Sequence to fold (156 residues):
Amino acid sequence: MNILGIPLQVTLTDLPTGNTPAETPPENITIYEDDITAVLWQRWIACYMLYDWNMLHADSAYASNKYTWIEQVCKRLEGTSINAGTLENTLTDTFNHILLESVEDFIQTHMKVWECDRLTVEFPVARVVSELFTVKPKEGRREPGAPGSPFHICQK
Fold:
């Protein structure tokens, strides 16, 4: 098996018995992205844009790094046994973890360059996410500061 031409050296367990083409593991597989990937992508883009406020550059850098992250997924899973039924989830979770490590590396780098603590970096990251992406409160929740919310601030 391979992902974008990168060999994935894993042993699949619990494969269906038989030799029909539908039951044979595909030669080329894909890493699917989920909601967690989307949130991590937003944070990665926000971290990038703290250095370069150009969304085209950020998207291009993300796309360039994606191949490296997929290589890391393959290396991290190399030699493992994975249940065939959970392969898709395992690939996605591993990719998300690697993406999270990249976000963390960005944050640590910002902390060193800016000579500050994590909260000083996290606040601008949150600000960038809120400026670039649609952020809406969950159903049934009040917006912070709305009357009756636990975060209502009285004004004089």
Observations:
- Residues 15 and 24 are 8 Å apart (CA to CA).
- The first strand starts at residue 2 and ends at 3.
- The two ends are 66 Å apart (CA to CA).
- Confidence is low (pLDDT under 50) at residues 148-156.
